[in-house]
């Protein structure tokens, strides 16, 4: 619809696993809870420092919800010893 937005977010590859979840469970739940579209690119670059593009689509409220969840995953990585 005309109110839908699209956002590309660069996310560290190590955080993407938490976003996707086991067997895709987390990303499926994110899609259901937010009502938005989420797609994840192949890694850009090699090794643990590579990033992946997470593309979000939907109304602003959906994007804000998913971004908050992505931020939680990225911050959780920063807190690991």
TrEMBL record:
<dbReference type="InterPro" id="IPR004088">
    <property type="entry name" value="KH_dom_type_1"/>
</dbReference>
<dbReference type="InterPro" id="IPR036612">
    <property type="entry name" value="KH_dom_type_1_sf"/>
</dbReference>
<dbReference type="Pfam" id="PF00013">
    <property type="entry name" value="KH_1"/>
</dbReference>
<protein>
    <recommendedName>
        <fullName>K Homology domain-containing protein</fullName>
    </recommendedName>
</protein>
<keyword id="KW-0694">RNA-binding</keyword>
<feature type="domain" description="K Homology">
    <location>
        <begin position="3"/>
        <end position="75"/>
    </location>
</feature>
<dbReference type="InterPro" id="IPR004087">
    <property type="entry name" value="KH_dom"/>
</dbReference>
<dbReference type="GO" id="GO:0003723">
    <property type="term" value="F:RNA binding"/>
</dbReference>
């Amino acid at each position: 619809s005309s109110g839908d937005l699209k956002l590309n977010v660069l996310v560290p590859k190590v955080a993407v696993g938490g976003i996707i979840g086991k067997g895709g469970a987390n990303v499926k739940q994110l899609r259901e809870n937010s009502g938005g579209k989420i797609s994840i690119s192949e890694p850009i670059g090699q090794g643990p420092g590579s990033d992946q593009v997470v593309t979000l689509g939907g109304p602003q409220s959906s994007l804000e919800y998913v971004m908050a969840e992505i931020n939680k995953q990225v911050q959780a990585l920063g807190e690991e010893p």
